């Protein structure tokens, strides 16, 4: 049995859809009712083997809100996941934590980008990150101390349906974009990879679950202009220009390597192919 936290969220709702598709038994619990008493009772009655934590505070309309709402960010991104890890550790339950690939910034010295072996370089310790990223990096460092933990890193999720969390939708909605290339994660492929990690019983540890390759906002805009919105236009800035003109909050730009995941037989499509498919099947609602 799987216990799923944050099932109503952007990523959590996709876990619900796919766990049903795979016919895997699961139980959902709102983070609002997350307490030891309820958890022990649930674990006892349902033989919980995995706890998947999709709950997090990402801010609305974007992560800049985390700079203002630091109490909520700490509660959702540090306190809750660490409590979940502690609970799993006490009962010997495998803990599955949704992390982020935004723990790196800049170019890697590896040809395919940052690997799971690279220590994050965009953290509170380095004093160079935004508050959201800092909380995610701090929590990942703590939860990975439990030896029965999966850390699944998602990066700039996208899908075929218009949604404010969808990277493609952000390109549609924003008039000013940046020039750097980044790794992205197709939301459905990400969740499929996570579930297959459990089915295949992959070794515990950190996994970069991103599509193969990298794209820039200009690459995605060009695809949009050829498909769903021919008249879409935008201005492009370098990061230095962005920080001077738009926002001073540090932002991650990086490419992560998914070779570890693929070495276990879990494939991720090329990012260009995956984006093209989403645009071909685009839904505005």
How would you summarize the topology of this molecule?
Layout: E1 2-5, H1 12-21, E2 26-29, H2 36-46, E3 50-53, H3 65-68, H4 70-91, E4 94-100, H5 131-143, E5 149-154, E6 157-158, H6 167-173, E7 176-178, E8 181-182, E9 185-186, H7 187-199, E10 205-208, E11 215-216, H8 217-225, E12 235-237, H9 239-245, H10 259-263, H11 271-280
Parallel strand pairs: 1-2, 1-3, 3-4, 4-5, 5-10, 6-9, 7-12
Antiparallel strand pairs: 8-11
Helix pairs in contact: 1-7, 4-5
Mean pLDDT: 94
Q: How widely separated are the two ends? A: 32 Å
CATH topology-level name? Rossmann fold
Largest sheet: 6 strands, parallel
Number of strands: 12
Shape: globular
User: Proportion of β residues?
Assistant: 15-25%
CATH architecture: 3-Layer(aba) Sandwich
Instruction: Please indicate the count of domains.
Output: 1
Q: Taking Cα atoms only, what radius of gyration do you get, to the nearest Å?
A: 19 Å
Tally of individual helices: 11
Name of the CATH superfamily: NAD(P)-binding Rossmann-like Domain
Taking pLDDT < 50 over at least 5 consecutive residues as the criterion, the unreliable ranges are: none
């Amino acid at each position: 049995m799987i216990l799923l936290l944050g099932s109503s969220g952007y990523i959590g709702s996709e876990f619900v859809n796919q766990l049903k598709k795979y016919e895997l038994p699961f139980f959902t619990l709102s983070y609002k009712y997350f307490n030891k008493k309820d958890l022990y009772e649930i674990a006892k009655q349902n033989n919980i083997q995995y706890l998947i934590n999709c709950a997090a505070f990402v801010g609305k309309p974007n992560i800049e809100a985390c700079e203002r709402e630091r109490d909520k960010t700490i509660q959702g991104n540090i306190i809750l996941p660490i409590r979940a890890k502690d609970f799993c550790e006490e009962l010997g339950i495998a803990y599955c934590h949704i992390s982020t690939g935004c723990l790196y910034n800049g170019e890697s010295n590896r040809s395919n980008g940052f690997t799971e072996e690279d220590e994050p370089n965009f953290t509170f310790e380095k004093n160079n990150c935004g508050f959201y990223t800092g909380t995610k990096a701090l929590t990942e460092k703590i939860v990975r101390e439990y030896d029965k933990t999966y850390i699944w890193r998602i990066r700039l999720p996208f899908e075929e349906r218009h949604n404010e969390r969808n990277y493609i939708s952000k390109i549609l909605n924003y008039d000013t974009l940046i020039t750097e290339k980044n790794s992205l994660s197709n939301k459905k492929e990400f969740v499929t990879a996570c579930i297959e990690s459990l089915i295949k019983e992959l070794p515990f540890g950190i996994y970069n679950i991103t599509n193969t390759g990298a794209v820039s906002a200009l690459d995605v805009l060009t695809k949009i202009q050829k498909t769903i919105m021919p008249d879409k236009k935008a201005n492009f800035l370098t990061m230095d220009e962005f920080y001077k003109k738009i926002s001073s909050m540090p932002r991650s730009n990086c490419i992560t390597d998914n070779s570890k995941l693929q070495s276990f037989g879990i494939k991720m499509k090329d990012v260009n192919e995956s984006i093209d498919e989403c645009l071909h099947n685009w839904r505005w609602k």
